Amino acid sequence: MSELNRQNITSAAKTEIGFDYQFYYYFYLILDLRHGEKIGIEVKDDIHIDCADETTILIQAKHTLQTLKSGDSINITERDKDLWKTLSNWANLILEQEKPIDFLNKTKFQLVSNKGVSVNPFFLNLDNLCDESITVKDFKTYLKKLQDETSNEIIQGYISNVRELRGSILKLFVKKIDFKLSQDNLIERIKRRLLEKIHIPDRIDDVYKNLHSELRDQNYLKVKEGQK
Hints:
Layout: H1 3-30, E1 38-41, E2 47-50, E3 56-62, H2 81-96, H3 100-105, E4 107-113, H4 121-130, H5 136-148, H6 153-163, H7 167-175, E5 177-180, H8 186-198, H9 204-224
Parallel strand pairs: 3-4, 4-5
Antiparallel strand pairs: 1-2, 2-3
């Protein structure tokens, strides 16, 4: 097998497991929906939840195959490409809105990943802006410095997109972001959540398989019919 073919297969595998991760997190969330809530996959975002109070949670699910020596998934870093691509996509979505403040008041954003938590300057500056230890101007200065010191031009562009948000909008956006990291072992988590619902350990695997099959079939048929 040529090196190019091997790289193509590896790339395809990474893409496929990313979609699987998104599906399993969607499955996991379904089991905790509350009355009046609706969930979708690949409609408003990777996943979204329309809440009973008419707010929406937009969820981006990012998976990595990279691991540390311990075997745990790598930590999210200050210049993490998935992080900045996600924030850039959301920034673009906000800029598309006719009334961005109204949109932000009704929207929450979640980045979900199996990557681990790390203490890095980005999260520290994010927290400082949220608790008003620093100003929006300070935060933008930090972003400009990070952009200038980043060698990857694609990530530079993502950071630039976030910096372009007007001060009041950027501050409100930052306050609406939630990071759910180290979200791994989703199949095991799904089964634990099922056990909380039916309280019959011997039935968990059967119920899991039936629900998994039904969800997969439903997604396939809807996409085939041109629906979301």
